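Researcher: Before we compare anything, I want clean individual predictions. No alignment, no superposition, just each chain on its own. First chain goes here; please echo the sequence and then give the C-alpha cells.
Model: Echoing the first chain and its structure:
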Amino acid sequence: MNSVMHPPRWVDTATALRSILPDLRRQARLAVDTEANSLHAYRERVCLIQFSTPNNDYLIDPLKLHDLTELGDIFSNPQIEKVFHAVEYDLVGLQRDFGFTFVNLFDTMQAARTLGYKSQGLGSLLAEKFNIIIDKKYQKADWGQRPLPEPLIDYARLDTHYLLMLRDALELELREKGRWELAAEDFNRCCHVANNHTDLRERWERINGQQDLTPRQRTILHELCLARERIADKLDRPLFKVIDDRLLLSIAKTIPHNFEELKLAHLTDRQIDRFGRALLDAVRVGSEAPLVKSSNIERPHDAVLNRLNRIKQWRKAAAEKLAVDSDVILSRAHMQIIADKGPRSLEELSGIMKDCPWRLEHYGAEILHVLDVRPMLES
C-alpha cells in the first residue's frame, strides 16, 4: 500500500469509468465497499461504489452512471480477488441493483471472526493492527445526496484505502494459526449469500408483539402496514421514518375511529395531521376485511429438533475451544439441513457439506457421533 494518500478520483461519467477500467482489471486484488441510502429512502439503492488499488482510490457514482456492465465483469472475474469488510450487505445491494454475480472474495470481518477477534469492526481492526484511527460518524449519512460533501467523500475512500493492507495481515495470521482453509470456505460461500435471506412472512407478522393481538386486530395491523407502505412510497422515506412498528401495533390494539382516539395510540399531532386520515381508513378496512392468517410454517418433527439441539450443543463446545462465535464452526444453514436430513454415514454427510471440505474432514466424525441417538439395548 502506497503510504502517500492521493485525492480519490470521482467517477460519474461513462468516459471516466472507461478510463479507470484498465487499472482495475490489471489488479490481482481490489478493495471494495458500497454506500447505500437505506436510512433515507423507501427503496434502498446503492449510491456509491468504492474501489481501492495499492495506488489509487476510486469513488464510482451509480446514480449518474446508467451502465455498469463492465464492473460486473470484474466482480465475476476469478482472477481478481475482491476484498470487502462485512461483505453480505454489499453483495445484496450490488446484486439487487445491478445483477452482479461474484467469485473470489475475501471478507476481512469474516477473517477476524475466524481468528476470534472480539472487536470485528473495520475501525477497531485498523486501530488494533496499525494504530490507524477512522471516524465512523458518517455511517448513517444520506449517501444519495448530490453533490456529496467533502467529509463524506473522505469517509468513503477510507473504507477501502487500508483494506488490502488489513487483508494481508489477516491472511498471515490465519495461516499461522492453521485457520486459512476454514476461512476460505466461508469466503467461497459469501459469493452466494445474497440469495439466502428471504422472509416469506407478511409484513404484519414481522412486528414484535403481533402474536398477542386478536385475529381482528391482526387484520387491522395488516391494513395499517399496507397504508404505511403507500405513504412511505409516496414520500420516498423508509418505513420507520413514517410510523414505527410500535405505533402501528398500538393503533391495532386501540382500534381508533377518529383523530382524538388516534391520540390514545400515542401518535404526535404532526403524525395525525399528515397520516391520520389514511390510518383511520386502514382501521376501517381492517375492521371489515376477511381475517388474515399467519404464514403456515410447519413445526419440525421432534426427531429433527432433537438432532438440532444436539448439534447446537456440540457446536457451542467446539467454538469455545477455538474462542470463536459458534457459527464459525458450522453455519446455521448447514446445521439445519443436517438436522433435517439426519445423515447416517460419512458419505451422506459429505453430500450436505460438499462446500466445506475442511469442516467435513475435521468435524465430520464428531457430527456423526453427536447424531447417533439410537439407544444401546442390553442383551
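Researcher: Okay. Second chain, same rules.
Model: Second chain and its structure:
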Amino acid sequence: MSEPADMPEDEAQAARIRELAAALKQQKLLATAIEHMPMVVNVVHRSGELVHRNRAARELNELLGDSTDWRVLRHRVTLAHLDGRPVASEELPVMRAFSGETPPPLEMKVHFRDDLPPRYYLSVGAPLPEDDGTINAAVSCWQDVTALHEAAELKDRFLAMASHELRSPLASMQANVQMLEMDPSVLSNPERRLEVIGRLRRHTSLLLTLVEQLFERARFGGDLPLCPVETDLVALCRDAIALAPTAGPRPVVRLDAPAPVLGKWDPIRLVQVVTNLIQNALRYSDAATPVTVRVEKSGTDGIIEVIDQGIGIDSTEVEHLFTPYFRSSNVPLQGRAGLGLGLHISSEIVKRHRGTIEVESQLGIGSVFRVVLPLRRADS
C-alpha cells in the first residue's frame, strides 16, 4: 500500500502501521488455519531442516522419532507407488519443488513400522521462492486417504461377494425352470413336483434373505425407530430358536434359561438379532455338536449368549466381525451363503438398544457371542 505524496508524515506513518497490523493479522489467521488442518504440512529447507510443522505433522513426526531433519524422517518410512514400485527420492513432490516445479499430487502406500498397518497418502509439494527467485525452501503436504482406499476395497469385496452369493440360487432356480420347460410331466408326478417346488422355495427364500439384508443395511444409514415393550428375553429366544432352519443335518439348539428376564425392548428387532446369531452358529458348526442359547439377568442388564463348538474365528479377525460385508478367511465359500451383513445388522440393533455385543472365539473350538442389554433404556 502506498500513501499519496502530499499525505502528512504522521498520517503516512499511521497508514503503514495499519498496513503492517493487517498483514500480521492475515499471517496469524493463515498460521492458525494451517496449524489445525487435518493434513500434514511441513516447510522444508534445502538442507533437510524442518523449518515449520503443523500439529498433524508434529504428531506424525513423533511417531517416526521426532527428528527435525526431514531426510532422517524420510528414511524411517517405506514409500511405494500403488503398483508396488518403490518411490525414489527424486520422485517426491517436495524434492521436485526444490527444482522449481509445482508437481502433480503423488499417491503412495506408506509403511511406518512393522507393528503398524500400511496407510495411503496423497502428497503435494510447492516451491517457496525468495525475492531473487532462489528456492531454498518448499512446502510439503500429506493427506491421509486410507479411508478412501478402504472404501474402494470394501466396494470391490461386496460386489464380488454379492455376485457370488446371488448367482448360486439364481442359477439353481433357472435350472429348475429349464427342467420344467423340457419335461412338463414333472408337475404331474407328486413326488418330483414337491422336490422341485421345495428347491425353488429354498432358493427363493435365500434370495429374499440376501436382498432383505441389503435393504436393512441401507436403512441403518438413517434412522431406525424402535418399538420397545415389556418383553421376556427367555420367551424371545425361544421364538428365535423356533425360527432356526431345520432342513438337512443340523446341530441341536438348546435353551439354557433358569428364569424369565424381563425388560423393555423391541422384540421384533431382538428376535432378528438372536436369529442371526443362531443361524451363524448353525452354519459354522458340525451337526454332532450342540448350539446353546443362554439367557440370564446380571444386575440391571439382560444377557444373551449364543455358544457353539464350530470352526471358530482367528483372533486377528474378531475385531472386524461386525463391519459390513466382512467374512472370516477360514469360511469356505461353497455352502456358506451370506453377504457378511448379519452380524453388522445385529450389532446396529443392539447399539440402538444402548447395549453391547462381543465375541470370544478360538479356531477349531468354537465361539461365544454375548449380547448385553440394559433392562431399561436410559431414554425410556
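Researcher: What stands out in the second chain?
Model: The chain has three domains: 36-144, 150-219, 223-380. Additionally, The two ends are 65 Å apart (CA to CA).
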